[in-house]
């Protein structure tokens, strides 16, 4: 299992990097204008509408399929797969027909500020991209099918062909007709499904048109899917609100919001996923064994680790928001106006990073304890608060799209604290003193890191760069300042003797440095009692 998790994490990182490259290419050729605004909105409409189905399939298909295969054999499991597939086709057809017939209503719902040519472009893109929902259906079903048959590499690699096709379509659109952006998205969705077909055929699956809502397993599937669909639907309202409000501002605002979100999600998608993926099996096992004390310990360590990584990322991202946007996107058609818009969003958006990590950890704890109701209620609260704050900033401030990011930060902080309080009511004290102590230490180190890095950048590197007008001098000094800041932060947290830092550093010494012949004789691998306790507990759970 450890090898599978490691493989998935590596492949996920590769996929994230290529996805990030896709956004860089888009920003280079198109910048942030009315076409990219229309493109992002056209993507959002079918993805949001289909996510109800997709998330439900992902969560409900696997357990029912495995039960069918165990009780009735492979043929019955394949029959169930066909029924789910055809059910997805029915819903996809409803979505496609509704979108093709009434695109104006959907554009008004998702981007009511669009007018004229921008609105017409969004309608055209939407009518094309919506056909990708058929391939999304097959992708979700075949992904679950692959996982039930112990094949993980193909689903994890799905992002690679998709990103390659989209990058190609962006290039074609820049030199020809912009509708290549929409056609490319549909072809990219098809490429994901094609990647899974060899795995599906290998396990002797054959498609058959069979569909009955009266089937017991389909009824069970629908019962399981509905609550998940509701939860996903409530969560997606946030994205719809943000995008609609962004469409009320200047052209390029929707694109700037999306570019900043992609930068932010690049960090969250790797770090938060890695932490929650590693801790969820542990807390699930402890919950099953009624080991609440052990669950709290893993939970506490996971929260501290999230803070340790994400808080300095938030401070650094805030202080260098504009420079980071310029470093990543600031070339080609992505002009100074686009940099300023995306930078203003990123400035506030990164502040939500540590709260997003902590919140995801608490949500996983509730799931491990068999409580899905509380996270759903918290999500509803999150949507309500974000709507209130977003509208308040929209009507009573001049923050424009930056106000949407500020609303996200405030909402994330408040709902995280509410979720922590509810979890404490459920399982008792969580070790708040320990977490607060770690938070204060890390915050101090992160602030000092930020001040040193920003001061070095403004008063040393920028004046120095004026004497050396090299082509990429701005990018070089940004990387140098951020790199020095990371080094300073690393030294400070080591000096502060934070438990999680000591354990991670000790793991590096034991697993890496101690095995290098040149370095091993200089490395002390003796374990302190606290670390011995950590390794003993870890080994005990790993053996089960």
Return the domain count. Answer: 3
* SSE pattern: HHHHHHHHHHHHHHHHHHHHHH
The gyration radius over C-alpha positions equals 25 Å
Record field, number of beta strands = 0
* Largest sheet descriptor: none
Distance between the termini: 12 Å
Structural class: mainly alpha
Characterization of this structure:
By secondary structure, the chain is mainly α. It folds into 3 domains: 1-30 and 34-229, no CATH class; 252-444, no CATH class; 445-543, no CATH class. 83% of the residues lie in helices and 0% in strands. It is built from 22 helices and no strands. It has helices spanning 2-30, 34-72, 74-101, 103-110, 116-129, 132-148, 153-156, 159-175, 180-202, 216-246, 253-288, 292-319, 321-329, 336-349, 353-368, 373-396, 401-427, 432-465, 473-495, 499-511, 517-520, 529-543. Helix 2 packs antiparallel against helix 10, helix 5 packs parallel to helix 9 (180-202) and helix 15 runs parallel beside helix 17. It starts with a helix and ends with a helix.
Question: What attributes characterize this protein structure?
Answer:
544 residues; mainly alpha; globular
Summarize it.
The protein is an all-alpha fold.
Sequence-ordered SSE layout with sheet pairings:
Blueprint: H1 2-30, H2 34-72, H3 74-101, H4 103-110, H5 116-129, H6 132-148, H7 153-156, H8 159-175, H9 180-202, H10 216-246, H11 253-288, H12 292-319, H13 321-329, H14 336-349, H15 353-368, H16 373-396, H17 401-427, H18 432-465, H19 473-495, H20 499-511, H21 517-520, H22 529-543
Helix pairs in contact: 1-8, 1-11, 2-3, 2-5, 2-6, 2-10, 2-11, 3-6, 5-9, 6-9, 8-9, 10-16, 11-12, 11-14, 11-15, 12-15, 12-18, 13-14, 14-17, 15-17, 16-17, 18-19
């Amino acid at each position: 299992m450890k090898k599978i998790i490691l493989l998935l994490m590596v492949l996920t990182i590769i996929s994230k990097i290529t996805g990030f490259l896709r956004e860089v290419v888009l920003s280079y050729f198109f910048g942030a204008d009315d076409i990219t605004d229309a493109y992002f909105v056209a993507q959002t409409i079918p993805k949001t509408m289909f996510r109800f189905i997709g998330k439900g399939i992902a969560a409900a298909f696997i357990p029912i399929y495995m039960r069918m295969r165990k009780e009735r054999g492979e043929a019955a499991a394949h029959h169930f797969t066909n029924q789910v597939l055809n059910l997805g086709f029915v819903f996809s057809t409803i979505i496609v027909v509704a979108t093709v017939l009434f695109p104006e209503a959907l554009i008004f719902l998702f981007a009511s500020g669009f007018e004229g040519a921008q609105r017409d472009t969004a309608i055209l893109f939407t009518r094309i991209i919506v056909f990708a929902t058929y391939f999304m259906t097959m992708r979700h079903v075949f992904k679950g099918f692959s996982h039930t048959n112990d094949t993980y590499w193909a689903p994890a690699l799905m992002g690679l062909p998709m990103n390659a096709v989209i990058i190609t379509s962006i290039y074609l659109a820049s030199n020809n007709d912009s509708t290549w952006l929409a056609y490319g998205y549909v072809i990219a969705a098809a490429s994901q499904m094609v990647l899974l077909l060899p795995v599906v055929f290998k396990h002797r699956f054959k498609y058959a048109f069979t569909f009955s809502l009266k089937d017991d397993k389909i009824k069970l599937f629908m019962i399981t899917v509905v609550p998940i669909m509701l939860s996903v639907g409530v969560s997606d309202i946030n994205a719809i609100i943000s995008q609609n409000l962004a469409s009320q501002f200047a052209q390029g605002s929707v694109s700037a919001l999306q570019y900043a979100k992609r930068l932010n999600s690049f960090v969250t998608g790797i770090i938060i996923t890695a932490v929650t993926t590693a801790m969820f099996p542990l807390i699930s096992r402890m919950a099953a064994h009624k080991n609440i004390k052990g669950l709290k310990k893993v939970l506490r360590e996971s929260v501290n680790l999230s803070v340790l990584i994400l808080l300095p990322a938030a401070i650094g991202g805030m202080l260098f928001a504009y420079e980071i946007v310029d470093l990543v996107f600031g070339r080609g058609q992505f002009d100074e106006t686009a940099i300023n818009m995306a930078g203003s969003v990123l400035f506030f958006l990164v502040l939500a990073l540590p709260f997003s990590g902590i919140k995801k950890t608490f949500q996983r704890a509730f799931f491990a304890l068999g409580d899905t109701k509380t996270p759903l209620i918290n999500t509803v609260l999150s949507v309500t608060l974000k709507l209130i704050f977003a509208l308040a900033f929209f009507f009573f401030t001049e923050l424009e799209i930056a106000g949407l990011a500020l609303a996200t930060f405030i909402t994330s902080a408040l709902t995280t604290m509410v979720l922590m309080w509810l979890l404490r009511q459920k399982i008792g004290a969580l070790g708040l003193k320990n977490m607060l102590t770690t938070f204060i230490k890390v915050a101090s180190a992160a602030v000092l890191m930020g001040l040193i890095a920003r001061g070095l950048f403004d008063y040393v590197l920028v004046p120095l760069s004026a004497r050396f007008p090299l082509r990429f001098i701005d990018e070089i000094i940004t990387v140098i300042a951020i790199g020095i800041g990371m080094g300073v932060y690393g030294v400070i947290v080591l000096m502060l003797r934070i438990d999680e830092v000591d354990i991670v550093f000790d793991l590096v010494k034991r697993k890496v440095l101690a095995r290098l012949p040149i370095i091993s004789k200089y490395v002390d691998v003796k374990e302190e009692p606290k670390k011995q306790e950590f390794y003993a507990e870890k080994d005990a759970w790993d053996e089960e």
